[in-house]
Specification:
144 residues, alpha+beta, 3-stranded antiparallel sheet, 10 strands, 15% helix
Length: 144
């Protein structure tokens, strides 16, 4: 997964946060904007993604993070037990993709997915920043 965080405003702290996943697929063709992106920046090269959902996304399309100062027990994508007793499972705060972008990469886009893709250049905005850091690490490891 590839995470890009912006700031989240402080309010009364919920027991957890739900971040919607944005799926990118390995079997979709590269677009011209990504033609000059080196192969070792694989995540940045894939600019086709599944379009937003027409219905509510299922729970598996979320990445959940929990406040472990509040939560004592979790179950997959929801809280079960808070320090003060049972947690209200409806309280995890949903965070919009405008605040946090989580790109999740999968290998295969099926027929349904092929009909609902769109071109997304969000990650290419970070090409210089990410690219220089990746080159430094790969050079240090003598992989370039």
């Amino acid at each position: 997964m590839f995470y890009v965080f912006h700031t989240v405003r402080k309010e009364k702290t919920p027991p957890g946060y739900k971040f919607e996943l944005t799926y990118f697929y390995a079997n979709l063709d590269l677009h011209e904007e990504a033609a000059d992106v080196p192969h070792y920046l694989w995540a940045l090269r894939h600019t086709l993604r599944e379009s937003p959902y027409s219905t509510d996304p299922n729970p598996g399309r979320y990445k959940s993070l929990f406040d472990m100062n509040t939560v004592r027990g979790i179950d997959s994508h929801t809280t079960r037990l808070c320090l003060s007793g049972p947690c209200d499972s409806s309280r995890p705060k949903s965070v919009s993709n405008d605040t946090v972008f989580i790109g999740h990469y999968k290998t295969m886009c099926d027929k349904k997915c092929m009909n609902t893709t769109l071109h997304d250049l969000t990650l290419l905005k970070y090409k210089k920043q990410v690219g220089s850091r990746v080159v430094k690490v790969l050079s240090t490891l003598q992989l370039l």
